[in-house]
Amino acid sequence: MAVTDVNNYTNLANISTSTTTAATSTSSTSAVTTATNDLGKDAFLKLLIAELSNQDPLNPMEDREFISQMATFSSLEQMQNMNSTLNSIAEVNKFSAANYVGKAVAFTNDDGKQVAALVNAVWFDNGKTILDTTEGEIALEKVEGISDIS
């Protein structure tokens, strides 16, 4: 990327489009689709370094711009870390639903009535946890209460 190319861009979206367009000539179509849709922290950092190293020495980036971009980078990194943590928690919770087998669960059915049913099995379908009960299949998020059968 030439110095004039970097200086002509006013935001990171334009830079990322230029960078991913250059990558299309060497990548497969599926890899290009992924690269153009996701601007991760590594790509952001590379763009920031390119911007800093190719800036006009007579008109350097102001402190506020640099601080703003670093804050954006930090926020992006924290969001990715939080997303990873939430995915881990969701995966653990998914398998904890197996503890419901043999227990009674209470939920509100489609008619608006509260129903209690015995859980026979637990299914995982496209990221959703489904309880197979004596009253039919229900989503885990509809469960309002759990009880031991004694």
Report on this model:
This protein has helices at residues 3-8, 12-24, 29-37, 41-53, 63-96; strands at 104-108, 114-125, 128-133, 136-139, 143-147. By secondary structure, it is α+β, with helices and mostly antiparallel strands. It has a five-stranded antiparallel beta sheet, with no helix packed on it.
Structure summary:
With 150 residues, this protein is an alpha+beta fold.
What topology emerges from the helices and strands here?
Layout: H1 3-8, H2 12-24, H3 29-37, H4 41-53, H5 63-96, E1 104-108, E2 114-125, E3 128-133, E4 136-139, E5 143-147
Antiparallel strand pairs: 1-2, 1-5, 2-3, 3-4
Helix pairs in contact: 2-3, 4-5
How many DSSP E strands?
5
Largest sheet: 5 strands, antiparallel
The run of helices and strands is HHHHHEEEEE
Rg (CA only): 25 Å
Gross morphology is rod-shaped
Strand content: 15-25%
Helix content: 40-55%
Low-confidence stretches: 1-36
Mean pLDDT: 74
Helix count, per DSSP? 5
Question: Strand pairing plus helix content: what structural class?
Answer: alpha+beta
Kindly report how far apart the N and C termini lie. Answer: 71 Å
Biggest sheet, spatial arrangement of strands: 4-3-2-1-5
